[in-house]
Every structure is written in structure tokens, then in C-alpha cells.
Amino acid sequence: MKISKDDVEHIAHLARLEVDDSLVEKFSTQVSGILDYIDVLKDVDVSGVPLASGAALQTNVFREDRVKPSPGPSVTLTNAPDRDDDFYTVPKVVG
Amino acid sequence: MRFEPVIGLEVHAQLDTETKIFCSCSTSFGASPNAHTCPVCTGMPGVLPVLNHQAVTFAIKTALATNCTVARESRFDRKNYFYPDLPKGYQITQYAAPIAEHGHLDIELEDGSEKRIGITRIHMEEDAGKLIHDPDRPKSMVDLNRTGIPLVEIVSEPDIRTPKEAGAYLRKLHAIVRYIGVCNGNMEEGSFRCDANISLRPVGQEEFGTRTELKNLNSFRNVEKAIAYEIQRQTYRLEEGHKIVQETRLWDTARNRTASMRSKEEAHDYRYFPEPDLVPLIVDDDWMTEVRESLPELPDAKKARFMEQYDLSGYDAAVLISGRSLADYFEAAAKGLKEAKLAANWVMGPVLGLLKNGEITIENVPVNAGQLAELLKLLEANTINAKAAKTVFDEMVASGKTPAEIVKAMGLEQVSDQSALDDMVTQVMDANPEELEAYRGGKTKLFSFFMGQIMKQSRGKADPKVITQILKEKL
What we know:
The complex is a heterodimer.
Chain A (H helix, E strand, L loop, with lengths): L4 H10 L6 H22 L19 E2 L9 H4 L6 E2 L2 E5 L4
Antiparallel strand pairs in A: 2-3
Helix pairs in contact in A: 1-2
Chain B lengths: L2 E12 L36 E2 H13 L3 E2 L2 E2 L2 E4 L9 E4 L6 E9 L5 E13 L3 E4 L5 E5 L6 E7 L6 H17 L12 E11 L9 E6 L2 H20 L8 E5 L4 E4 L12 E2 L6 E2 L2 H10 L4 H11 L4 H7 L3 H11 L5 H15 L14 H12 L5 H14 L3 H8 L7 H14 L1 H8 L6 H11 L6 H11 L1
Parallel strand pairs in B: 13-14
Antiparallel strand pairs in B: 1-11, 1-12, 3-7, 4-17, 5-6, 5-16, 7-8, 8-11, 9-10, 12-13, 14-15
């Protein structure tokens, strides 16, 4: 599957990644290569091979609805680049 | 050209669990900023979400109460977008395989007829955080306490045609989620939120027109007003030959209009994919049966029963079943009475009158249902008359004493004794010879004058029925 340069730029934008123009062509080739390899995997005959991961066979993993103490701002704000009391702050998003 | 509005509603109801949907942080409202956060709900690397069992039970309950088919197997997906209220960069939601589909609610129209509004689907998802926009600085402050609170999104079919129908559907849904105890329904705190999709099409055309989505509809009244405004706005645009732009519009409560909201960038490229950290959810027959058996009587069924069992009008029954606690209060107050209508009148009148200032609710009203029942039994047994009953009621509110105590202390027992009342009527007639003559001369309106005089003399205690009878004989 061919990933165009436009696709690369679109995906980079969605992921909020800056991609230098000089690299767009390179990524277009590399991402296309990754998808082509998935096509190779799809063609492998795995009938009769058991699933290796237990999670793939599991269903219904639940928690009981019981409150546990939350770490709160002391943990949540550890890596906040900017904060105001117990809020973390970001550049204004509306109006 | 005449246009027909086509309206669909999306309701987000917060499920009333103790903890969030995928972690053990508390869901209680009003905590200090970010107090209820942990690495799971803030999306730190390496954490694993684990589904809250109670949240699923509540979602199943909602589905059954809205006539939906519950999916035996449902799954979770990631909805990807960037916004500061969404710390993970994606919302966990049920996109491809929701927990329930194909439901409906029957709403009552103004002319008394019923209309069925389809429910497309109900899915579970996590709520986002809250942003507070700093008025003075170019900053937004982020509070993630709400992040990860369990929601059900209830999506209606585009079956709604008028603002009134939208209001009726919403009120009914609101009553149901509160009845079944899955959502507290508090619209101001955002526990029950509504978005509306609206488009117009020429009457007779099958195909839908371009729609707009309305947000910020935080009361029933605003939903109706915003939809009415938007129908008018779209009508003008179309009549002037313009096209409708597909966009999200915010309802401006202060200005009573909708305004375009800057569109969320790439809003329609959510790149849903299966959430690899959560396993499929299976709802088996045992779970379904358990939830079905836990469902209380629903509003429609209760209304029908009240009309039948208590011989109430549709209006009275609708008022009394509007909340489960109110309905319970009425039933307790009506217990043992010959005429349930008497209890209905007292609950809808004096009792509801006490609730009006907002702080007093039916749960903590100063006269409880048992006390009201005692009072109404005294009234029904003619121990006191209606006027005295209101006096006793007011005194019960003020002092908290029992009706019997108050009646005794205030000497309010009704005088029904024929000879005592006979004497009283004679006295009043003797004391008012002019009025008596005028009455006998044809001024029959003076009947109420005599009634009044006798009630006054008896200090309100005379049995009006007996006096009427005696007066008619004597005058």
C-alpha cells in the first residue's frame, strides 16, 4: 500500500509532529514498507496455530466499585510544564 | 417552500458509581482541582484500565429501561483527538460494538396522543476533564477530576420534529434514569447533558438536509428554546437561498441565540481503533436477569397504576410520579384513606408548596408522609374540618407536633353534634334579624353570610355540611 507524501503530512499533523520537508519523502517510503510487510504477514497460513497471548482469549475483567485514595495533584502535576495552584495550565484554548 | 425540521438528540448521562470507569478514583462532585486523579485516568505510560463492574450494570439497566436490546458482546475503542481536557489524547468509548441498540421511548404530545421516538444506540464511555478559561491571562486551567467518570451516551433516532417533542423526550429520559438510580440527573453539575442535531428538509422530501449540532443546552427550557431558534435561523438561511454549513453551534443563554463554535480541528478524523488494553465485555443471561429483576416500576407503568388504583386523573398522576420519592410519599400518605384523591390534593398543594425554596426536598420535608396520613384520617373521619386541617398542617410544619396533639391543644375538633349546632344557628339568626328578613325576602346570597357567622362563632370548628343542612331547614 502506497503512503503518499500528503498522507505523511496529514498523519504528522494529526499526531502534532513536526516533520521536516526533507524527511517527508523518506517517511513515505518507510511507512509504505511497513504496510507492505503487514500484507506479507497476512498471507501466512496460521490455521491450527494456537493464540500465544492469554489476553486474546480473555473476556470480562472487572474492578469492584470501591474508592481507593487518589494520588492527586502531587503526582498528577509532577511533569506539568506550568501550573497554577492545583490546576495545570495550558495556552488558552477558547476565545 | 415549507420546511420540516428533523431533530435527533444525544444525551450524556453520568453513571452514579462511586468510582471512575477504569480506575478507583472517586467520582464525587466538588473536590479540589485534580484531587481525584491517578496515573490511570491521566493516561500515564504503562498503566492499564480495568472496567468498573457497577458501571456496566448501570448501562444494562439504562438499556432495559429504554427498551433496548443489550448486546451479548460489546467492546471498547479509542477515539483520538487532541484537546487539553483529554490527557490520554484519546477517549475510550464503544464505537463499533456498543452495549445496546434499537430502543425507544413513547412520549405524550400536547393533543394527548403518543409518539414513539427511536433510540439508535447506547454506549459506554469515559468523560473528559474540565477547562477553566482565565479571563485575564492567555491561559486555560485544567482540572481532571471529571476525567474518566463513566457515561452512557444515549443516541435517539432523528424522529423528533418540534422543540416540544424534544423537551418531552428529554424529560422522560431524565425521569427514567433517575427512577432506576443510574444517574442523579443534575443538569447544572453536568450529570445529564444534551446535544441536539437539527436539519431542515422541504416537506415531502425523504433525504435529510445538512445538519448543525447544538451544544451547551443545560436545561430542558434551553433545549426547547435553542432548537426553536435554530429552526428559525435555518429557515431564514434556506429561504434566502443560502446553504446550511455543517458545524457545531453553542447556545448563548444570555443572548438567546446560537453562535458558531470554532470547529474542532480535524474533528472528523477520530481514527477509531480497538482499545487493546480492554478485553471484550460479555453480558450473559444471568447478569441480564439479575439487572432486570432489580428494575423498579418505571414512570409510565406507575402513572397507569396510579390512575387505575387511586382513581386519579392523568394530570394528577403525572405530577405525582414525576419523582420516585414524591410518588412514594403520596402512596404512604394515601394509605388507609377512603379517597386517595384527598391525599393527592394535599401532596400537590400544601406539601409541594413547602418545597419551593429549593433547600427542602420531598425526602426531608418537615411533615413526613405518615404524619400527613394521620392528619388526613382526622379530616376524613370528620374529626376536624378542611379549614382546621390546614391550620393543623401549618402548625405541624412549625412545631413538628403530631396532628392529634395539635388538634387537642388548639381545640380544633369539629363540632358535628346536631343539637349544639342547632343552638348556634338559632343564636346567629336571632342576632341578625335584618339579614334574616332580607334573605327571606329573596336575597339568597346571604346564605354564605350566615355560614360565615356560624363558622366565626364556632371558631372554625363547625362541620360545614351539618350547618348547611340545618340552615336550609331553618331559614
